[in-house]
Amino acid sequence: MKQQIIEAIKENKLLLFIGAGFSQPLNFPSWNGLISLVLKGLASEDDKYKRLEDVLDTGLFTSLEVLDKIKDKKKQVYEVLYREIDKSLDGLNLELHQKVGKVSSKIITTNYDRLLETATNFRKVVFDNTFHIANLQDKENFLLKLHGCIENPEKCILFQDDYDQLYKETAAIEKLKNLVADHTILFIGFSLSDEYVKKQFEYIHAIYKGFSRQHYYLTVESNASEMHGVHPILLNNWSELGPFLDSLIEIKGASSQISGASETIVGNIAPALPSLIVKEVSIALLMAAPIDQENKPYFEKVTKHLAKFKVTIECFYFSLEVLRNLEGFNYIIILSQTVKDKIVIEDQYLKSKLITLEEIEENLISDLLKGIFIFTDKKTQMTTPSISIPLAVLWETDLSSVFFKLFQRKTLNNFINGFIVNLEKFDLNLVEKGNSKVVTRIDESKQILSENIDAKNLVNFVGRKTDMEDITRKVIDTNKQVLTIKGSGGIGKTTTVKKIAIELFERGFYLDGIYFIDCEFITHYKSFEYKVAQCFGIESTINLKEHILQNNIELDAVIIMDNFETLLYIKERDEVKALVAFLCDYVNIVITSREWVQLEFEERHEMRAFTNEEAFELFGKYYKSSLNTEEIKILKEDILGKLLNNNPLAIKITARNLPKSKNMAVLKKDLEEDFFNITKDDYEDIFDDETDSNIERSKSLYQSIAYSYKSLKVNEKLLFELLYLFPDGIHMNNIKNFFSQSDYKRDSKKVTDREITSLENKSLIEINRGFIKLQSIIGRFAEHQFVKRSEEEKVDFYKRAFYYMNFLGKMLYKMYHADRTLGLKIFDQNVENFIKSYSYITAFDDDQDEKIQFIVITYQMFDLIHQTQQFSDKIEKIKHHFDVAKSNVLFEVIVANAKYNEGDFEEGYNRLKKSVSIEEMYKLDHTVELEKDIVNLALEIYMYSNVNEVRKFVKESNFHNQWNIIRLLFYSGEYGKIEELLISNRKKISPFTLMEMKLNTNKLEYDELETVISNSFYRKEYTQLMQIHYIKAKMIKLDKKTINRLVVTDRYTSGLKSLMLAFIETDEKKTINFYENAIHDLQSIRYYYTEAIYYYSKFLLNNGLDEEKNWFNKGLLLAEQNHYSFLHHKFNCLLEGLELPYIESQYILSEMFQLDSIIGLNKYTDIEP
């Protein structure tokens, strides 16, 4: 006897699966015999069926294939089935059938006959009885007739389509998967030599595949083998079946005696007391809100009335997929509408679909189901003859009263507006009072929804049904294509796409996120690539495509690229298109544009113009005063249709700027006379860029914006035009904090909540999750108004913008040192704002020292997120505007530092030497902030390749910078002095340096390193992450997948990555290639260049390869010359063939290189790259 079966019986985890062979000894036909009988009957009427009978006999066609040929004869098939299976059972020996009931109380059968239920008296459950299937685990015994029962032959599973439907879509199968997850299955009566039975097994296998338990089948075939994960148990002949079952019954009996005794003991200790009030109640709230439906319900319609009950309410959108996956809820509440006495549900494209109550039951499963309540919008009459679940359909409006009756009075009586099905099956609980817990997809999901998409900005969305339906379908179905949504400016492309994005997000589509890239201000390819890489979480990589390919990063995500037409007119437009083409294989791309992108694989949707009725509806959303018939006519025909061209943005802006009870005739006159005079003010200049060749040039947009702008107060105009200088927008909290400073408290032009609210109410700004931004076209108008101002006024604007950005830069720099992750995250949200600021800080001459410090601080922040290229380009253009002493040297050093850190080591180093040599640094005054910055930035590069000269400089010039000193001490292996320095100055060092030091002194615990990796870095600190994983790779072998995920930002990180790959590579040639690539990439970072040579030498030595001596000598010489004491020690160990601990005292530096004289001075700056 198989031990697994014995254990399963003892644990009551044995599930018997009975097939047709179990009934055949009692003269019930085999499956092929049954089909033959059907064909014989049909052949008597038509000879062609005789040929099918021959084909079945020869085995050329399987029985299912034959049945498919005669499925138009279903009536005759069912008649034969009924005649042959529904026989009298009188006088039949059911001893074996009785025995299986004694072996297990859990039986599943594919047989249609009534033998098992007659022999065992088990509760019979047919596959389509969803309610009883949901409660199988609660039953003492059950007989599940998976393929139906002869009592209802037309519902029996016979044809191929029946099998496909049963095993792929029904709630019964989903329940069975859960049921058998921890059960052992014993198949009896299945002959695997029968092709039909083999086919059945393929279907049944879908139930138990993926579960860890072993399953078995009884057979008398000596050559039987494992099939679909089921192992054979061999009997000599079928006469041994009875004794085999007897042995199982004996095991069952012995097990029951043992468990029965223990149950008695437990029962005597603690008798259970009935609970009067249920403390934990779970409710699934389903809402049908198809995108093509008006007057949609909302979750709060129910949740607010359950707020004072101690219940957990999980909210879902009502679809078949959601219904099939519901499990473990006490009650299900459905909010929907009825059409033609059917319930509205959402289809796979979020559109309306109608289903019956029977279809709801067929697709529903829940173990703890105590009642289902469907609330509809109106009275309905539905037929419910076959409903077996406890169901109430109500069109009550007073939901508070409904829930009081259900959960406080526990009654379903006195509901006039509705009907109840299976009243006796409801199980109503007295629910404890308290606070409800409401859970939505957004609350529970870790999905990402772009911060540029804010649902509150779309509450007044109207119309666009056909656009919504078509775009939604195309977005969901898009496969390795780009979906381009084309339309003129202000027509509603962005709004519509954002609305669809929210609908999809709320329903759980795109688990990896919905991203939004505004292309309006992107002027070169690198910026575009960076924005795209952000979506993949690998921004700053120098090889985006390679990284995606190498790691096969396919995102279940959508990237929305808004205002894409801008990118079609930059120099690198072909590179942009090529990247989009590449991305299509890895993520879904949706583009909004004023023109087609002209990609070969471009799926297209062209936005239609607003209808007059939609325009009228939108106007009514923002203008609430009542209008008479004549005014409505003027509004529709003259104002909306002719003057505003039914443009949604123009309508929104105009409507939100009207005073109450504005007469439409007066408005028309305003728009015709005053308004048109305003537009003569060279409005076409706003849209004269090459990118605007396809923009709608009607005056409606300009007119509406100008009409609104004219009514703004001085400070409102200030904020409106100021926003033009902030492409990323301004966060409300930051701008309010800025103007709350003492310098601005009495400023007549300060910005407060009043100005922000006013602009938002006039639809001139959008606020997305706290960020205030101008819509694209409105931004053009703001720029146009700004350009028209006097030079004096512009300077005033520039100063305010700079002072704000300087305030933000200092705040973020301080924040970074307190919280690395938060500081860099907020800086990253303002990258374009900082880039823009370098364009206007030279517009006024004062505050040059302040501007230079601003540039130094922001450079360090850009360097931390590996985005110095744009910064360098801007600095190159403005560096000549400064006349502060040595400022030209500082800017040259900054650009050289940027080049070096970008991986262009040669250009960076050569540019630095031309700007300031180490000898020239002796002449700089370290007490002057600017000159001290020059030294700090220059030393950062010189330290990598001229460490001895740097050491002498630091000592002789008494230059105090903690990062430089710690790095020098680290290179020389003087770890004890670092510890003393940290203790005496109470300073911190970078996690990488600290972990390296601990590793080299055998003090690093693996768990400590894991904690650092998890908690110490912002996800965009790619260099830090690469470095810390390099330490990990020196401790243990990393897997290739982990290494490949690390982002390469320059040659330094590329070198470290190659080293890690070399550590794990098993192919000799590939290993050599990795080591030599690492050495090549690291040659300008001298310490790690030397360490790479050490590891390569060790590899060559261990494998007895040539060149080992040359590489060893080269590495040893570098370690000695640069006083890399720890590496010197490692080379010595390699030479002696020993692994000895590093002892600092064995490697003392000469006096001229020791820094002891300045270590004790508490004068260190905190600058640390």
UniProtKB/TrEMBL annotation:
One of the Pfam families matching this protein, by short name: SIR2_2
UniProt domain AAA+ ATPase: residue ranges: 479-620
Domain of life of the source: Bacteria
Protein name: AAA+ ATPase domain-containing protein
Species assigned in the record: Paenibacillus taichungensis
